[in-house]
Design goal:
TIM Barrel; alpha/beta; 2 domains; about 260 residues
Length: about 260
Amino acid sequence: MIIIGELINSTRKEIKKAIEEKDKEYIQDIAQKQVEKGADFIDVNAGAFVHEEVEYLEWLVKIVQEVIDKPLALDSPNPEALKKALEFHEGTPMINSITAEKERYQQILPLVKEYNARVIALCMDDEGMPETAEERLKVADKLINNLDKDGIPLENVFLDPLIKPISVNGEFGPQVLDTISGITEWGTDVHITCGLSNISYGLPKRALLNQAFLVLAMGRGLDSAIIDPLDDYLMKLVKASEVLLNLDPFGSKYLKAARAGELD
């Protein structure tokens, strides 16, 4: 399971405040804690600052990389902000995100190619956000074919079926699960990821819903997620699910975590 730590996001009040005040230590501490808990990538987002996003995203990249050795997921639809941030990223980055929308695809694709970046591909096109699993799969197929044709290794592609809150429509959960199953059945090298916490928006006890949905999604083929790595129980469920789905051969990672007391 590839974990993308979601906590350095300017839509969160405390992060927005820390960015505005250039509170370097606060941001770095959150980055380090996410890595310590098992994050493979650290997402950085400055999108709440419409006029300062280029400056702030560059700053986040620089200060976070001072204290961790994991790659970053550069979270912006703004090609200018992405280009500047990519110039300062060390190692192989992830771009969050591209879509099948013609203009956005044409703007982001050159950056993906230039930096040999991993890329999160949202199942959305010029017709908007799809409603059904069938519509999502149609867009996913378009994205896979276009990215492959344009020379992007499919193992660098992370398809995101776009989770919507079940508080709005109870069918949104099953639709995403069916989409994950459909993509998995194609047998390509693409990864499947998601912004997990969207599922529970507007409901109480959100962590419980997030935890349950992650297990269901992993059972369908989800192999990555944008989540809060500081949710200890969620991370325990990841390790347990990997064993049960035979994604952790002989339970080696599970046993190591148990011996280290990480499952207590």
